[in-house]
Amino acid sequence: MLSDTTERETACKQDDILTSFCNIDDITGKPETQIKVLILYPNGEVTTRKTFDNSTKYLIMNLALKNWSAAANHAFKHEELKQHTTEAIRRAVSESSKILANPKRFSREEKPEEIAAFSNNIFTHEVSVFCPLWHACMKGACGITAAKGQTDKITKSTNVMALATASLARFRNPQLSAYAYRLSTILYHSGAKHNDILRLNRLGVCMSAQSAVNFQRQMGENFDAKVLIWKRGIEETAAALHLFNNVLVEQVPVTGEAEEGMDYVVDIDMEETT
After folding, report:
1. Nearest of 180, 198, 135 to residue 161 by alpha carbon
2. pLDDT tens digits, the chain, 274 residues: what are they?
3. Which residues pair with 40 in a beta bridge?
4. Virtual CA dihedral for 74, 77, 78, 82, nearest 10 degrees?
5. pTM of the model
6. Secondary structure string (H, E, C) spanning the chain
7. Apex CA 170: angle with CA 118 and CA 162, to 5°?
């Protein structure tokens, strides 16, 4: 019985302590927004904080009110948080770049038909889906905002963002070759010199000169195959035309000069004769 009484008294004392902590008389009467934070730990320990600078005050307030956009803006403007948010962004971008460097997901195509089908628009769209933070950083660097009417700027920025992403991803994984092969092909057919390709390869923009030459040879093999298919089609057409000329000579009777307005009916036997 005594134990129960002691427990009730202890509980009442704890309630009184919590009530005293929740008292807001010490922050009322001031002509500005006031914040008081109460932290109750599992062991019953209570901590309160009521003195904050303006940036911290509005950050806490917007978090409590679930104004996420405003809270995010205040977090980036908070002087003491800047160095920590920068490091957090670096880690997040590094983590998302692992997806970019995954050859099973991004741009390891090496066959000519795959390189020909490569699209900067599709590539940047995939980046926006799988690496939204990195894509947002690039859009910010390009000066693209959420405002409407920036279609032309977005279109022009696609090639820039594709180049930046491909170069950075290839730095982490040299096997990512689709964009580099495509750009190497453009440079090769534009008359770029060996030293030019060598410098751009060191910048991570295109493949090495030897890889570019080997790829052109591979493309040439496919081109020869297409030429042979075209040649076979021409030969088949020529054979059919020769057969038709023989039919005209052998089976169509020779008539006199046709009179104007007269039609001739001719039966042609296309069955093979021996």
Report:
1. 135
2. 435 555 555 555 566 666 666 666 666 667 777 887 877 788 877 777 777 888 888 888 888 888 888 888 888 888 888 888 888 888 888 887 777 777 665 555 567 677 777 788 888 888 888 888 888 888 888 888 777 777 888 888 888 888 888 888 778 877 776 777 777 777 777 777 878 878 877 877 777 777 777 777 776 666 666 677 777 777 778 777 777 777 777 766 555 555 555 555 556 555 555 4
3. 46
4. 130
5. 0.56
6. CHHHHHHHHHHHHHHHHHHHHCCCCCCCCCCCCCCCEEEECCCCCEEEECCCCHHHHHHHHHHHCCCHHHHHHHHHHCHHHHHHHHHHHHHHHHHHHHHHCCCCCCCCCCCHHHHHHCCHHHHHHHHHHHCHHHHHHHHHHCCCCCCCCCHHHHHHHHHHHHHHHHHHHHHHCCCCCHHHHHHHHHHHHCCCCHHHHHHHHHCCCCCCHHHHHHHHHHHHHHHHHHHHHHHHHHHHHHHHHHHHHHHHHHHCCCCCCCCCCCCCCCCCCCCCCC
7. 45
